[in-house]
Amino acid sequence: MNPILVASGVYRSFGAVVAAADLNVSVAPESVVGLIGANGAGKTTFINMVTGYLKPSSGSIRCDGAELTALKPRRVTQLGVSRSFQIPQLFNTLSVRENLLVAVGIVAAAAHAWAHSELRPAHVGPATDEMLERFGLAAYRDRPAGLLPEGVRKLLDVAMALVVRPRVLLLDEPTSGVSADEKFTIMDLVMGAARGVTVLFVEHDMDIVGRYARRVLAFADGRIIADGEPAAVLADAEVRRYVIGEAHA
Amino acid sequence: MSRDRTPLVLAAACGCLLAATPVAPQWLVFLLTLALTKGLVVLGLLLLMRAGLVSFGQGLYFGLGAYAAALLGARGGVLDGLVMIVAAIVAAAAIAAAIGLLLARYREIFFAMLSLAFSMILYGLLVKSSTLGSTDGFNLHARSFAGFALADGVGGRVFYVAAVIAVLAAGLAVHRYLGSHYGRLATAIRDNELRVEYLGASVFRVVYANYVAAGALGGLGGALAALAVGHVDPETTYWTTSGEFVFIAVLGGTGNVAAPFLAAGVFEAVRTLANQYAPNVWQMTLGIVMLLLILFLPAGLWSLVTRRRAGV
Q: How large is the ipTM?
């Protein structure tokens, strides 16, 4: 099966700091990939480059054959690559329903320009309510997004990213700042809603990585130091030293 | 879900204003016409403020509209008020479409200062132009309106009726726009541009469209004001005029399309009364009103209406 996301020779530096050093990644359709690594290892830089927030200094990133490297976030989204953020990016003065209404409305208004969307303006209301139900957000529908608990904000952020019906979804620490009890509930909801979508998620909780990822990429100093099935990667000596932080692995 | 009563309230208020046309004294007709024309400019400002932008240069479009109407009469020989108004809207929208290409890329203080700079450029040009009357400006007279000849002494009331109809049409159109997807998108842009872009929408296009619409409304207000006053001068584009529009916008709040007109009415009334009873300190009176408003009604006069509805 042809890969849906391919990063070839991707390099990015910030002054003397190399955030991505010749990254070569190929992701199969509908796979779930966990990105692990210590802070500053280059995980978020990788997501930022895939989604157009940062431009690589060199190299190329392609989604389903389409070049993403020089595109702005808007165009990357239109090509089917969407993301959530470590700090949820919401419309804080709007209610939860209005947040989703804006997102669904954008997709409906631009349906003719989006190859992967068939949403029509008449379906905006029902599609929004369906998203509220699917993510368990109906109880918060009229509450301003700025006043939500962190776990609900995270869910809404992911729901907004999924509204655009992406083929590739990148989640930047979807469970950070959420209580241990809620983490698995959130991930169950997210993974259920993202069925059929290629998912790459950054995560520090190895229990989450072990349960949901089918493949793990371990980052350190802008390089990928291990790539494989979760059990194998998490047992790797270099990963245990650089990522998990064991002193004498 | 509460019913949307804004169109009904707007129509009822405009109906009352129209019904008062034959009986209202001339001074009140004039004062209301000025208030309504300023309200139209501020309605455009409301569009920008919904997207998180404050323009300190709407005097540019107010002045452009006024001068376009006046020039059409004085130099173009067109003496129909309605044609002057349409020409003013087109001229203001065209200039806004050109300037908006630059301004829609800026935010916050940069947007505010650039908009102010453009209005002051026009002011400078008008002041230096002797053919446009320099600092004195020049007079304009409409001989007809929509093809009907204007008899002596009725022009003021005709322009007042035109202003009321323009307010109703613009108010309903903007209200419908704000309730639509694109109106919600403007608020979303104010809250978080990054998310809007990551949802696949163009922030630039929404801001640009709102800017052009605000310019067109400014031109409409300027043309109507010029017809009512019968004179244009560079003061219409001066920064204090633009500041007045921001003052009215803050006074009313951005909660409803009726707020700019309510605030413009209050502003004109306070200014007229202050001018009459305390002519040496009328600016201070306005300043005190603004201070009290910021202290007690930070969301503007319209928050009185929303508080009452919410039973607070």
A: 0.89
